[in-house]
Amino acid sequence: MNTVMKSPPFTRKQFIHREFRRKVKRIEKIAICRGSVEYLLFPL
Prior knowledge:
This protein has helices at residues 12-34, 38-41. It is mostly helical. It has a domain at 12-41. It starts with 11 loop residues before the first helix and ends with a helix.
């Protein structure tokens, strides 16, 4: 990149994707703890 970007290090889309992955991981962890597959099958 030869131009200085005024935007943050990562774009809003990447940030949303990261938050989404974090939620998915948390739900998967809860699902594994409860031994239930339903949480994994339910979409967010």
